[in-house]
Design goal:
heterodimer, A: about 300 residues, mainly alpha, MetI-like fold, 2 domains, 14 helices, globular, B: about 290 residues, two-stranded antiparallel sheet, 12 helices, about 5% strand
């Protein structure tokens, strides 16, 4: 029925196009070039802050202040060399890596197991628990940070990898469960049934059949959380205090606040370096990212 | 058989345990904290005194008004840009994936990295945005001017959030079958009429969801305000979330900070309820 309707619609539209053809304004034919110009300008505007910062990072100290957009004196890589040989900067990067990796692994493992229960198993309280967990996703970590700070300080785990991994790992769980649940639902049930026939226990079926098949889902949960943790700034700012434990983003914040006015170029270089992992992972797994984010927000 | 009954709960237990410890318990604990005054590390119960002080302080109402102004501007502007982009991408453009990836890059940056970039662009006298945009706004120094500083944060947060909002709206648009607008075309509807009468009602639930999502984001934008303006000049850009951070973490006023956290929590939670409701209504369309 709808196919017929579509055909009729197409025929009519062609007819009307013929009628209005000639001197009339042809929206469909004209617009692509206009659209491309619009989108290209937009992309340039979007990229501009990054490019402007990057260009300044390639100039010697103080030279960014000369107002020229492009370096007139060649590129200078000294700031990058200096940062990559500064123990404190490298230590911050290392801390970021430990916390982000630890948190993302933690989230992925826990979300993979809970997501499976919600996708496949029937049990009392299933809907209530699912609503509860997904509701937590809508409460941003922000209002929790003050009690968390107080709790962590009472438990004497402030300023440790442990507290960061636990907090990052847990913040990601609701979103992770949602993605994994959706992913498991696309795997045919027959796979587990076949495993059961072969004498596998439910746990074995999950570990050896379902988990390998849901690898793409696991990878996207892991990557989204890694980038989120890597970029986090406020949680780390509140829960970490010593120079040795601070993450790259907190280090950058301190640097920005201590700026004396003439080492903007070095600050810009640090920002560019810290930006790289997130951008790299995003470019590498663009599709998983975009899909994951839509599912997390619209269906969650 | 018994084992089968416990199995699902065993799978969910770790998630529930950690969510309860790291999200639920702190939320309840902040309600308790909000009724205490902290003095030299010890807590003293004061009932609703913190809230009394809060509602009586002009700082709170200034921050409240500022948060509302910022939130309305942020949500409106992001929605306009996001909607235009979503309509373009929904129509289908060549290299659409490439354009979309580029527009998404700011969303992949840390708040503090974005802040370094925007502070550099608006560096007084030198930054390129300061020099180009200054003459259009009475030659103000953006970061040193109350509205100017708000404008910079607004610009930076819009820059980061448009892509995500666009993605949500696009997902909504793509659930609308093509026959719908073709049917409208048969009935002699213009493109504009077809949009308002066919597309708009169908995309409305997604729009609601996106608006609520952005509102929650706006209310909690402490990170961007902290790193770009630090609430300045003076208290001109100290939004509620930043006010809370200052009181609790900088001045160690845990009770008072927690009272602010409870206020923010109530705003967020009521928005979350609306969000879940509009998602339910959206399901009935599918």
């Amino acid at each position: 029925m709808s196919a017929i309707n579509t055909k009729i619609a197409k025929a009519r539209m062609e007819a009307s196009a013929r009628q209005s053809g000639g001197g009339g304004f042809n929206w469909r034919k004209l617009s692509p070039i206009g659209l491309h110009i619009f989108l290209i300008v937009l992309c340039l505007v979007v990229l501009f802050p990054i490019v402007y910062t990057f260009l300044a990072s390639l100039r010697p100290q103080g030279f960014g202040l000369t107002r020229d957009l492009l370096p007139t004196d060649g590129f200078y890589f000294g700031h990058y060399e200096r940062l990559l040989s500064t123990p404190r900067f490298l230590r911050n990067i290392f801390n970021s890596a430990v916390n982000s990796l630890g948190g993302a692994v933690f989230t992925t493992v826990i979300a993979a197991s809970a997501g499976y229960a919600f996708a496949r198993l029937k049990f009392v309280g299933r809907n209530f628990l699912l609503t509860f967990i997904l509701g937590m996703m809508l409460l941003p970590g922000l209002t929790n940070l003050i009690p968390l700070f107080k709790l962590a300080s009472d438990l004497e785990i402030l300023d440790t990898y442990l507290v960061m991994i636990l907090v990052y790992g847990t913040f990601g769980i609701p979103f992770g469960i949602w993605i994994m649940k959706g992913f498991y639902e696309t795997i045919p049930r027959e796979m587990e049934e076949a495993a059961a026939v072969d004498g596998a226990t439910p746990v074995q079926a999950l570990l050896y059949v379902v988990v390998p098949m849901s690898l793409p889902g696991l990878v996207s949960v892991f990557m989204i959380n890694f980038v989120y943790n890597w970029n986090d700034f406020l949680t780390a700012l509140i829960l970490l205090s010593s120079t040795a434990m601070k993450t790259a983003t907190v280090g950058l914040f301190d640097f920005q606040n201590q700026l004396t006015g003439n080492n903007n170029e070095l600050l810009n270089a640090a920002a560019i370096l810290i930006m790289i992992p997130g951008i790299f992972i995003f470019m590498f797994a663009r599709k998983a990212f975009l899909q994951g984010m839509v599912e997390g927000a619209v269906k969650g | 058989m018994r084992q089968k009954k416990i199995y699902p709960y065993l799978l969910i237990a770790p998630a529930l345990l950690f969510i309860s410890a790291v999200t639920l318990y702190p939320t309840l604990f902040s309600v308790y904290l909000s009724m205490n005054r902290s003095r030299r590390g010890t807590l003293e119960f004061v009932g609703l005194r913190n809230f009394e002080i809060l509602f009586g302080s002009s700082n709170f109402w200034d921050s409240f008004r500022l948060t509302a102004i910022y939130g309305i501007l942020f949500v409106t502007l992001v929605m306009i840009f996001a909607f235009i982009l979503a309509l373009i991408f929904n129509r289908g453009v060549r290299f659409g994936g490439l354009y979309m990836s580029i527009i998404f890059i700011p969303w992949m940056l840390s708040e503090i990295v974005s802040s370094v970039m925007f502070r550099w662009m608006f560096l007084p006298e030198i930054g390129i945005a300061q020099r180009l945009l200054g003459p259009l706004f009475n030659d103000i120094t953006f970061l040193g001017h109350p509205s100017g500083a708000l404008g910079v944060v607004l610009g930076a947060t819009i820059w980061r959030s448009v892509a995500f909002a666009m993605l949500l709206i696009l997902a909504g648009l793509q659930t609308i079958p093509g026959e719908m607008s073709e049917a409208a075309a048969i009935d002699g509807a213009t493109r504009w009429q077809a949009f308002w009468k066919v597309t708009w009602p169908l995309v409305l639930p997604t729009t609601q969801v996106t608006i609520i999502f952005l509102t929650i984001q706006a209310i909690n934008a402490a990170g961007m305000f902290l790193s770009i303006t630090n609430g300045g000049p003076g208290r001109a850009t100290e939004v509620l979330s930043l006010y809370m951070y200052r009181e609790a973490i900088v001045f160690f006023n845990f009770g008072f900070g927690a009272a602010l956290a409870v206020m923010l929590f109530l705003i967020n939670a009521s928005l979350a309820v609306v969000y879940i409701r509009s998602l339910r209504s959206q399901v009935s369309y599918g």
